[in-house]
Amino acid sequence: NEALSNGRAIELFEAQRLTDAPWELSLHARIDEGLRNGEIWLAFQSQWDIASRTICGAEALIRWDHPLRGPIAPDAFILQAERAGRIDALTYWVLEQAITAALALNARGPRFQMSVNLSAQMVDKAELVTNFAEIVKRRGIDPSLLTIEITETSSVRNRPAACHNLTQLRQMGFRLSIDDFGTGEASLAYLADLPSDELKIDRRFISRLLDSNRDRTIVGSTIGLAHALGQSVVAEGIEDEATFHVLRQLGCDHAQGYLLGKPQPFAVFEQAYDASLQRQTGVG
Ligand code: C2E
Ligand code: MG
Ligand code: MG
Ligand code: MG
Question: What are the EAL domain coordinates in residue numbering (predicted)?
Answer without folding.
Answer: 24-277
